[in-house]
Each structure stands twice: as structure tokens, then as C-alpha cells.
Design goal:
The protein is of the alpha/beta class and about 270 residues long. The protein is about 45% helix and about 15% strand. The protein is built from 10 helices and 10 strands.
Length: about 270
């Protein structure tokens, strides 16, 4: 059962936190604006992931209403000069880096619009569950803008330069099936099934050894960004650290004694 988390006076009203055992649900609550992201919300996301609630081992990123997020609240760009624009973009980078490179695995529930800054937030999650209503777009090109919340790095790595170029130059919109084929989601489920699916995945993730989850979140992306020799070396180091933990030793002994579950098709 999901229960409301204790209130946090510094958390913006556009964010809500609930607990389901070891899993926290962080929910965007700006449905009237299709969950467009204003500065207060982005800073609230950064605060949550910088100092997550005690005992949480995985996070589900959810949204109220029919849409995950239609992107940046355009009012946040009005009247900015070039330097304040750079500072604003870097604030988004800093906040979403806490999602992508923080201490907690994050499963995002996608539905409806996952557009612009909403796609940038979604791409910072580690696993994305898309409902069939989901559609993806990067409309900045049609608005005289350029992506500024991390899409040039994260989205480009997910879907490749050619497809991102197409989306930005032409305004192409990908539906849920196309997004999954391109790598924007890892799961595709029926409308209304996203949250339950994400919670189930997050519960499985929370049951992992914390050392293994740390290695996946911290080492795997760095290995992907380096050369093969350095990557093999980092892999060896993390494999040794993970397998030497007390929990790993206990799990291996349980498996050898026939008490561990075997891998089977889902």
C-alpha cells in the first residue's frame, strides 16, 4: 500500500512524495499545465534526490493527470539574457544529474506528452515504463530554441544523432511504439498500467544488494563513456567490490546450497 510521506515544508506544491515500503513515489502535480516544469519543481526534484528520505532504496517518478510532462514552462525563459540563460540551463543539468547519477535507481512512468524538458527529465531515469498513450517530441527547433536540460547528451545517447536531428529539425513526434523501438522506453504497457508496473520493478530493484545497485548506477555509465581498456579495469574493480560484500557472500552461499532462485523465463 502506498502511503503519503511525511510533509516537507520546503518541497514545492508541484511535487508529492509517497512511500511504499522501500520505494518512494515522487509525483509531478501540475496536471492543469500538463506538468510543465517550472524552476521550483526542478529545484524540488534536485532537493529530493540530493537528500532522499531515509530507508528508500528505489524511486518511482510519476505524474498526475494524463501527461508525464509537456516540457519547460515557457514563462521561465521570458526576459533572460544570454548569461542568465546559461545559468538556468546549468541548473537543470545539476538537478537532473542528481537523478541520473544519484544513489537511488529511478523508474519513470511515462504517459501522454513526454516533450522537451519532460523528455529530458525522463531520460535521466534509469528505467522508463511507457503507457500506450505516450508520445515524444523535441519542439525546441520550431520555437527558435535549442534543448537546454540535458537532451543533447542523454536523449542523443538513447536514440542516436540522426533521429534526434530529425525530431529537432522537423518537429517529428514519436508514438509509444516508435519510442520503444528507438530506446526511449524499456517497457511498454497498456494505459493505466504504468504505475503498478513501475512499482513492481522498483520493488525488485530495492531487493538487490545495495552494492550491486551502486555499481550499476555509478560504474556502468562511466564504463560506457570510456575506452575498452579503462572500461575492463573499472569492471574488474567493481566486480571485486560487489562480490566481496557480506550480502553478496550470503546470497552466493544460499544459491550454492539450493536456496537461491534460478533464472527462468518471465
Amino acid at each position: 500500500m502506498i502511503n503519503p510521506a511525511s510533509s516537507n515544508g520546503s518541497r514545492p506544491a508541484t511535487l508529492e512524495v509517497e512511500r511504499d515500503g522501500d520505494v518512494a513515489v515522487l509525483r509531478l502535480c501540475r496536471a492543469a499545465k500538463r506538468n510543465a516544469l517550472d524552476d521550483a519543481t526542478v529545484l524540488g526534484i534536485e532537493q529530493f534526490f540530493t537528500a532522499p528520505p531515509a530507508g528508500v532504496r528505489a524511486v518511482v517518478l510519476d505524474a498526475e493527470g494524463d501527461h508525464f510532462s509537456a516540457g519547460l514552462d515557457m514563462g521561465e525563459l521570458a526576459g533572460r539574457d544570454a548569461f542568465s540563460g546559461v545559468e538556468h540551463s546549468r541548473m537543470w543539468h545539476r538537478a537532473f544529474e542528481q537523478v541520473a547519477r544519484g544513489t537511488l535507481p529511478v523508474v519513470a512512468v511515462l504517459k501522454g506528452a513526454v516533450v522537451g524538458g519532460g523528455l529530458e527529465l525522463a531520460s535521466a531515469a534509469h528505467i522508463r515504463v511507457a503507457e500506450r498513450s505516450t508520445f515524444y517530441a523535441l519542439p525546441e527547433g520550431q520555437r527558435g530554441l535549442f534543448v537546454g536540460g540535458g537532451a543533447a547528451v542523454r536523449v542523443q545517447r538513447l536514440i542516436g544523432t540522426a533521429l534526434m536531428t530529425d525530431m529537432m529539425l522537423t518537429g517529428r513526434v514519436l508514438d509509444a511504439e516508435e519510442g520503444r523501438a528507438a530506446g526511449l522506453s524499456t517497457y511498454l504497457v497498456d494505459d493505466g498500467a504504468g504505475l503498478a508496473t513501475a512499482l513492481g520493478l522498483a520493488e525488485r530493484i530495492a531487493a538487490n544488494s545495495p552494492v550491486t545497485n551502486f555499481a550499476v548506477l555509478q560504474a556502468l555509465p562511466r564504463i560506457a563513456e570510456t575506452g575498452p581498456d579503462e572500461g575492463f579495469f573499472m569492471e574488474a574493480l567493481m566486480a571485486a567490490v560487489a562480490s566481496s560484500s557480506t550480502e553478496a557472500q550470503e546470497r552466493m552461499q544460499a544459491f550454492l546450497a539450493g536456496r537461491g532462485g534460478k533464472v527462468r523465463p518471465s
